[in-house]
Amino acid sequence: MEAATEFVVESPDVVYSPETIEAQYEYRTTSVSREGGVLKVHPTSTRFTFRTARQVPRLGVMLVGWGGNNGSTLTAAVLANRLRLSWPTRTGRKVGGRVGLGRREGYPPGWDISSLNLAEAMRRAQVLDWGLQEQLWPHMEAMRPRPSVYIPEFIAANQSARADNVIPGTRAQQLEQIRRDIRDFRFSAGLDKVIVLWTANTERFCEVIPGLNDTAENLLRTIQLGLEVSPSTLFAVASILEGCAFLNGSPQNTLVPGALELAWQRRVFVGGDDFKSGQTKVKSVLVDFLIGSGLKTMSIVSYNHLGNNDGQNLSAPPQFRSKEVSKSSVVDDMVHSNPVLYSPGEQPDHCVVIKYVPYVGDSKRALDEYTSELMLGGTNTLVLHNTCEDSLLAAPIMLDLALLTELCQRVSFCTDVDPDPQSFHPVLSLLGFLFKAPLAPPGSPVVNALFRQRSCIENILRACVGLPPQNHMLLEHKMERPGLKRVGPLATTSPVLCKKGSAPTAPNGCTGDANGHSQAEAPQMPTT
């Protein structure tokens, strides 16, 4: 099916104007209460009005860690798309694919503690084919990152050799310099909005201390006094003060309570933590499948080795601990969702190991073993091997995060009970699909199961145009006597059981559907 150039919902609940799309939406959910030994379920319904601004702004994205593997790879992808480059590989000629930038402007500039220009950073990363690097070199050679914040105690000592491009001065002076950089980029590029995205080194965890970083006021005072604050938190605070969304792509606790409170006060979106790209994304699917199938997963052992700079930094214990926490928490909500399998407080044994092996570079190896209990004392063990091209998986996630965040900035809504327009909560939990350890507003459930996260995004976007949630019931295809209008590409055909004789053969040698059934017209059901 060819891609459509325009998407329009024809419904009395949706009104299109040149400025907005306004949709009426009935949100239906349930509340559950326990009375004695009885669970009582009460359906509830709330009427929403969604308004989405149609004007797409001129958006700029600034990367902290622009000269790293992720930053240089994302920049190369944007340029390869814009220049429509092609290059030879062992399996044929490749062409720069669309990366969905639309009216977004410029390459994604930013900061880095290394002074290498982006062409040299791309070559150092050793992610892209040489033929592509050669074509990109003259376009990236003039791109140089702005100086960044370097506080040695927050990253591994082995990173000191790269730190030749740093912002001098006190913490307060560094904060002001970051703010000037954001304003300068916004003005010089003629942008409407800027989003700041942390893709730099994993830092050690920052202890949350009352009076230091537990409130917005205390955090700002801590910066003025030059007390302990991480580089990533400095960037988060600067972004929030400039009204720019901040997204944390690393596992450390950048968004301490004081930063979250500041985001709430300024009504600025923040999101995190840690890009979900390879091993953890598979884990968020597989554990959901195992537990949902009634298999009680009791042991998860995850081993990784990689050779890029991320791996080198993670070879230091404090930085590894940050990554270990974000990787380990991904199964929590799935375990808690099934009290039939797991008693209160029961958790699987979950071990995460990361080793630095320079030779493999950006091509991370991930090995996982999942052991689950079956009925009558049996066990089931699954073992996986996953080769993850780390930066090639992360770069599209960075784009998706920026585009989805910008779209959320254009959405507002109200209810019949609360008619004043509001936006999404500043802690943008909608982005959890793209993060290993998704942040959620205080008191909100944290969802890690991948397809629940994706369904959340899909159904909220459907609500913005007045469409009901996707429920996959397909009742119109499950009725003995069709009484509903069939919709979609399956409206004219339906699989029936294969009869004797040969079924049509597809070009790949497969016949019929996944079960070997031929595809035929749906039989006419008798009516009385």
UniProtKB/TrEMBL annotation:
GO terms under biological process: inositol biosynthetic process; phospholipid biosynthetic process
Keywords annotated in UniProt: Cytoplasm, Inositol biosynthesis, Isomerase, Lipid biosynthesis, Lipid metabolism, NAD, Phospholipid biosynthesis, Phospholipid metabolism
Region (Disordered) residue spans: 498-528
UniProt entry tagged with the keyword Isomerase: yes
Reactions this protein catalyses: D-glucose 6-phosphate = 1D-myo-inositol 3-phosphate
Stretches assigned to the Myo-inositol-1-phosphate synthase GAPDH-like domain: 278-391
Cofactor(s) this protein requires: NAD(+)
Main subcellular location of this protein, as a coarse class: cytoplasm
Coiled coil stretches, renumbered: none
Cellular location(s): Cytoplasm
Signal peptide from the UniProt entry: none
GO molecular function: inositol-3-phosphate synthase activity
Enzyme Commission code(s) on record: 5.5.1.4
GO cellular component entries: cytoplasm
The keyword Isomerase is assigned to this record: yes
Matches recorded under Pfam families: Inos-1-P_synth (PF01658), NAD_binding_5 (PF07994)
UniProt pathway annotation: Polyol metabolism; myo-inositol biosynthesis; myo-inositol from D-glucose 6-phosphate: step 1/2
Protein family (similarity comment): Belongs to the myo-inositol 1-phosphate synthase family.
Function statement: Key enzyme in myo-inositol biosynthesis pathway that catalyzes the conversion of glucose 6-phosphate to 1-myo-inositol 1-phosphate in a NAD-dependent manner. Rate-limiting enzyme in the synthesis of all inositol-containing compounds.
PANTHER family according to UniProt: MYO-INOSITOL-1 PHOSPHATE SYNTHASE (PTHR11510)
Protein name listed in UniProt: Inositol-3-phosphate synthase 1
Organism expressing this protein natively: Bos taurus (Bovine)
